[in-house]
């Protein structure tokens, strides 16, 4: 099989695509012939040595895959061979074949393409767990989504509307905001040429946003956190800007506000039932035709360096997917 390998920390162009032996399958595991793999910001961080998880070299990035089961280990029902599934991994998805615990391989609807299935788990799982489980977003509340045209930001826009919130999308260009509006955003702020703090104040009649979803961090955090509503919840999702900000604690005190972190991947080991319940809701929405991940671009497995470069340089709107 072919796999994208990271042999030392560095830029995407240092990755290589090589032929490897097919991985063995142990008891309780299944082997998936990968048809599509999502490309995510943690992948870009991981290959640069900037992520909290640092796998031993050589390793393949890739956190989410979709394909069909081609082999099962001992104690796994043989009828699962041929089943169409998606799976979450800590790393290793940029390959033609992967092996995962059988419980990690979740069946996907017959109507769902492999590309869609590979673009769903991380972005939509993160957005849904953040909004429903961590922030407890309520119908009628105002949700501000920063980085609203990225994979996870766009998912938060869609899910916020499904949860009956008023959604304000904030992004860096008119094109990105048009995409966010097409996915349900009620209002939009271009923080490249508009004062974010003042625009939030205007759109909320000086009340602020009940929930702020922030995968960006940096200067955008500094502005947005000052426009959180009374008893608001500020969701810390990531730091795509490259700078981890600090919070003036008096803001949380004066607004009786909460700063709520989400490391979605930690639920895989700490409380997997949260993810299972979340996936159940996401797949139900998909089956009802109420949720449709936006695939911005598809790349061949060999083009993984280009996909990661596009992600790092913010040329993506929605999800990027590798096909194998």
Structure description:
By secondary structure, the protein is of the alpha/beta class. 31% of the residues lie in helices and 27% in strands. The chain is built from eleven helices and 15 strands. It has helices at 41-47, 114-119, 121-134, 151-162, 174-182, 196-203, 218-224, 249-255, 267-270, 272-287, 304-312, and strands at 2-5, 16-19, 29-39, 64-72, 84-88, 97-101, 105-107, 142-146, 166-171, 187-190, 209-214, 228-236, 258-261, 295-300, 319-323. Strands 3, 4, 5, 6, 7, 14 and 15 form a seven-stranded mixed sheet that branches. A six-stranded parallel sheet has the order 10-9-8-11-12-13, with helices on both faces. Helix 4 links the parallel strand 8 and strand 9. Helix 3 packs across helix 4 and helix 3 (121-134) crosses helix 10 (272-287). The longest helix is centred in the C-terminal third of the chain and has 16 residues, at 272-287.
